[in-house]
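// run 5 | inverse folding | seed 20
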């Protein structure tokens, strides 16, 4: 979906199977997994491996977000929906929340989508739980607005990029 790219502080590239242990380590904690519908019940190594392995079959792509020292701190997601829309998502390890990494990664991802003639212009949306105040702030700060409709997954609300 997206080619590898960098932002001011981050390197972002598609997740590979060898990233699964690091991904599980930052994701398999309730403070992270509670917000992600597909992480219900936790996100151990087996789920991380399955998520990464299924990317081409599902057209759900996931990207490692790394610091310059190589540490995996989070992930970005992009889903190429059959209706032509693109869904974006993200999650970050607890130690890396509240440091504007998610904002930087999301802005960079949106810039890459917009710059790729194969991907744009297309409708872009995200979803989050209505009680996830941090994600709602991030989405609105990045140019998304709440549509008032439910998201594709249960207990989620939809946001569209303006």
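// decoded
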């Amino acid at each position: 979906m997206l080619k590898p790219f960098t932002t001011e502080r981050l390197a972002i590239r598609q997740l590979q199977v060898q990233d699964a242990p690091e991904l599980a380590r930052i994701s398999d904690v309730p403070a992270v997994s509670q917000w992600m519908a597909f992480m219900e019940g936790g996100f151990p190594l087996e789920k991380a491996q399955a998520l990464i392995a299924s990317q081409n079959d599902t057209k759900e792509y996931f990207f490692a977000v790394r610091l310059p020292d190589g540490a995996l701190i989070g992930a970005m997601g992009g889903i190429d929906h059959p209706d032509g829309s693109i869904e974006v998502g993200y999650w970050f390890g607890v130690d890396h929340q509240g440091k504007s990494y998610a904002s930087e990664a999301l802005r960079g991802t949106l810039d890459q989508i917009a710059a790729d003639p194969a991907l744009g212009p297309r409708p872009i949306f995200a979803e989050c739980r209505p009680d996830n105040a941090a994600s709602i702030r991030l989405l609105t700060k990045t140019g998304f607005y709440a549509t008032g409709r439910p998201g594709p997954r249960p207990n989620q609300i939809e946001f569209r990029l303006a």
